[in-house]
Each structure stands twice: as C-alpha cells, then as structure tokens.
Predict the 3D structure of the following.
Amino acid sequence: MRPKLTDVAEKAGCSPTTVSRVINNYGYISQKTRDRVYAAMRELNYQPNTLARSLQGKQTKMIGVIMPSITNPFFAELVAAIEDKLEVDGYKMLLCDAGQDSEKERRYLRMLEANQVDGIIAGSHNLGIEEYQRYGLPIVSFDRDLSDQVPIVTSDNYQGGCLATQALVDAGCGHIYFVGNPVKTGHPTSRRFDGYADTVAAAGLTVHTARSAFYELPAAKGRELRELLTSGRKIDGVFCSDDLTAILLLKAAKKLGIGVPEDLKIVGFDGTQLVQNYVPELATIVQPIPDLAGTLVKLLYERIADPEKKLAQNSYLLPVKLLRNQTV
Amino acid sequence: MRPKLTDVAEKAGCSPTTVSRVINNYGYISQKTRDRVYAAMRELNYQPNTLARSLQGKQTKMIGVIMPSITNPFFAELVAAIEDKLEVDGYKMLLCDAGQDSEKERRYLRMLEANQVDGIIAGSHNLGIEEYQRYGLPIVSFDRDLSDQVPIVTSDNYQGGCLATQALVDAGCGHIYFVGNPVKTGHPTSRRFDGYADTVAAAGLTVHTARSAFYELPAAKGRELRELLTSGRKIDGVFCSDDLTAILLLKAAKKLGIGVPEDLKIVGFDGTQLVQNYVPELATIVQPIPDLAGTLVKLLYERIADPEKKLAQNSYLLPVKLLRNQTV
DNA sequence: ACAGATATGTCAATCGTTTGACAGAAAATA
DNA sequence: TATTTTCTGTCAAACGATTGACATATCTGT
C-alpha cells in the first residue's frame, strides 16, 4: 500500500493537519516539527496523491500539448523544448499527437478538459475556433489564429520569406520558384509565400509556384519535384516552404545532374538542429525554436495565473534568421 | 462553472446515483432513463471529472512514457507509434524526456507515481534497477534489462549486426569497421556489435572498431569520421550502429571523394521512416517500430490487468530487416 | 506575571465521483 | 393475485488530501 498523509502523521507523531501544513507551508510550523515530518516522508517514501490535491482545488500541474505529428523534426524539437521548460516548473506534459485527424483532436480536447489540465498549448489545427472556445481553458496557440482571446505565437514567416527570397535574388537568380504547402490564406505559414511574392516583385521578377501537399508522401513529392526540374522551365532559384521539401529538391537536382548552387540555388525553412547537423549544406530560414517554446510557455503561465486578464498583445511574432550555406 | 454529476441528474430528472449508474453501466437501468441521462449530458456538455473518479478507485488511464530525447528520429517515431496505440484504447500519455539526466529521470519517476499513472513504458536508462523496483508500478522496458519482473522489448540487435555485416561481406568487403556508440556490455544495443564481431570472424576477417559517443555533437563526430577515413587505414566497409552516424560517414566520404559504394560500403541501423524517405540511398537495418510499440503497449496492458501474473516471457526480441540500398 | 506571538491539535466540511445497503414502485411472469 | 424481476430513489461512506474554525499549550519579551 502506498503511504498516505495519515501514515506520515503517525510516523512523525503529529496530526494530519500538521503534515498538510508542512507540505503546503501554511500556518505556523516549528523547524523541529518540519524536520520530523520531512524525515517521516522520506522514510515512508511518501508522495502526496496529486489526484486528491487537485480535486480539493489545487492545480493539476498538467499541460496538454496538441501537435501534429512529432515525427516531423520541427515539431519534435518544438515539443522537446516545451517539455524542457515545463518540467523545470514542475509541470507535466500530456502529449497529444492529433495528426490530421480532427476527430482525434476533438477527443483529445474533451479528454484534456476531463483531466482538468491547467492549460493547453495548441499547435495542431484541424478544428474550428468555436471548438476551442467551448472549453474555458487557458490556451495559447502556435501558428494559428484561434480568436482574440487566444494569444498566438509564430515565427515571423513573412520576414523569413523575404530573407530567403532576397538571398536568392542577391545570389543572382532570375527565375525564382516557390515550392511548398498549398496553404489557405489567413494561415500564418502562408505569410512565407507573401514574403516571397513581395520580394520577387520588388526585384522585378515573376512569381512562380509549385505547391505540393504537406502530408503527401515524400516519394510522390520527390517525383513531382523531378518533373518540375525536367519540365524545361527556366528555374535557377527555389524557396522551399520547409526543409524536408528542400532536401527532396536537393536530391532531385543531384540525381538530374543539376549543380547546386551553380545551376540551381535553394533555400529551405525551419532550420531544425537535425537538419543543420545532418544536411549542413542547406541554406535555410531558422525558426527560433527555443524562443517559440519559451514564449508559448510563458504566455500560458500568465493565462493560468489570471485567465481574465486582458492580453497585452494577441500576437507574438518572433524573428527568424537566414542561415547562409552552400546551397545558395 | 463546469457541470457536475448532480447537474446532470437535475436536468435529467433523476438521482445522482442513477446518473452514475448510467455512466458506469452498473445495476438496472431502463433504456428510457439511459437516453434521458445521455441527452442531459450532451446538453450540458458534461465530462466526468477524471480526478474524482480515479480518486474513488478507478484507473487514471494515464501512462508515463520515459524516453531519451525525442529529437532523435528513432525515438520520435517510437513515441508517435506508442501514442497512437494508447489513444485508441483511451489512454493518455505523459511524455517524459529524460535525456541523459538521471536526476530528471528520478524526478519524473516520482512524479508519475504521485500522479497515479496506471503504468510506465521506460526507454530511458540513466537509473539503476532498484529505483525502478521501488515503485510498485506496472512497467515495461524498451531496450534494457531492468529486472526479472520487468518485461523487456527490443529489436533483435544481434541479428541486425549479423545481417548488416553479412551484407558487407557478401558485397566483397575485406576490411569492415564497426562505428558507433561505446556501449557497456550487457546493454541490448551492444548486441549489434556482437553480431558484427561474430560475422566478421566467421568470414575470416578482423574486427575493427571506432566507437564514438552517442551524445557527442554531430560536428565533432563528423570530424572524427573524416579522420578515420584519412588515417590511411584500409577500410572498405562500415557498419554504423545508428543511421545518423551512417549519414555523417556518408557525408565524410563524399567530401573526401571516396566513392560509395565503389570504394566504401556502408550499412546503418534504425531505419526510421524519416531516414528512409530523406536518405533513401542508405542501406540499413530496419527496426520494426510499429511492432515494438505494439508489443510494449500490449505487455503493459497485461501487467496492468494483472500485476501479479508471472510473465510468460521476460524478454521479447523482435526481428529486424535489412534494407538493401545503394550504399552497399 | 501577563500580553502577544508562535506552535500544535481536534473536528468537520469540502472537492466530484463511486458504490453498497436498503426501500419501495413498476413491470413482467407465474 | 401472488411472486419475481426490473427499475429508481435516498442515504451514507469512502477515496486522499486541504483548509478554516476553534481550543489549547508553549514560548517570547516586558
């Protein structure tokens, strides 16, 4: 049997109330009693039952983190960074991989509510705004506008699009393509395209896009990219909306004997440690993953501390960096 | 205010007991009442408070998953697979990234106990066996012997080592190196080396190793590998104990103008989807991630259902597959 | 010696649910 | 009609903690 508070009290020779007071630092407690109680706790290897504490009104110290697929290195690193911050503050992470499945996301949302989590970090977006508003929980969102009441944290995708494209322009490209996810307008990541489009226009060049589905199989995507390169169109620069696509493009070019960067320059987006370490030649836009995680967590804490408090800002745009490498 | 059981009772015009009976399918309930209760629940958007239920004696339906760094694609895919299985059965996953930090792992272990998780899947191993035994929780282990009482699930690392090395031998290599983690004997992954060593010996060749730390920085590791290749030693085949190392080696060889597979053949280990998709030329040993996850989860369920039951097997060794590609 | 601060204890309510004991009513069966 | 079986309700105790009210005892310092 797991020891309980009364067992500790008995062992320490005091009342349950006193033990609770020690644990919660409440009321007057002499150092001597405090020591005796701690000794008893250690001896019995006592852990307060968090269920009981939370039921009584305390926080659960649990945060629900809803993300699409952590098998994507970017989300894996983001989740790892979030976990790291939360753990330091004694929070636990219920990880919810919602994938592309809105039913699953809905189930998870209900589940998180039933489990009385203190807050939610939402990075997966298969559901409408209303669904998120229904639950009166502190929420912060990554990469998506949910509502005025929900702060949103994103990288400065527009800036990233500009930086990437400008790098291609500066490198002398005259036929710059945008290759990436077919994003709905309004979605923050579509700002990458906007940055691209504006920069291309400012340079007096034309917009060319070859959009491919984010969740498409990589093999099919690779084939598509090879077709693009062999289509006879003039292409000397490509801004890919994510690094994984950029890697596929790089491979396609190599296979076709197209020199990178001589004949074709490439810039990706995301800049995970994984890609930086294992595809170090790829020029890319680096999202500030630790800062993103830090901001998400910090804002969530604020919401938890005071859910009613009006937000100073609704939107937090974090600067990105161009990592100039051999592919540009 | 969140609705509670009594609110549902009131709305449905029946007693709390009846509502509870409906929820728990307990005792006699007419279909009519059942329908009325469900209607009331839906109308109020009622979710039973899992804290209260669990406190009362029900399971928490929470599983602690302790892993080292999910930024490693292998663990990311393993965790994703585990999460997927658990969610189907209504379990939630508390993800604990213990990294290389034994203090953190200890904190997590205590925390999981305090949170009354139903069981633990342990894949991170910074702590001694005793620490795991102290907590009377159902545990299954990935890739490590904890004790007779804890079932262990692993890929057949020995078989993998053999397959990989044999592939190199068959391809005509005469100077085959083992490059990888400096693993302590006894650890399941050291069986990869054993398989390598036995196969090399059987072919009448000599064992050569160049071990490098798993958690070493990739840049340093890459440098080491380049040194290895330029050291003047005769090397025509390398079995890397993980794919990431294999990728670094591949890059080192390319940079040095060493032809792969003409001059140097390489086989890796892990075979994640990510690597298969984005480094498709790499020959590797594929760990059966979905099966590993399935087995871990299934065994954990059995332990939860009956913690006392003697284990049919203590160790589950899952077969691996050689993925023959251009690097061999 | 006495006020006030400090320390500890007892008791009971509370959090939201489950579940057993028991009673009584309605419905089904004999 | 009598007897089961089925349905629903009331009541209360539990789960393991927190916390407020209140009483009492032991220290301070003056």
Remarks:
- Chain A has 13 helices and twelve strands.
- Chain A touches chain B through 50 residues (CB under 8 Å).
- Chain A has a mean pLDDT of 92.
- Residues 14-15, 17-18, 21, 27-30, 33, 52, 54-57 of chain A lie near DNA strand C (CB under 10 Å from a C1').
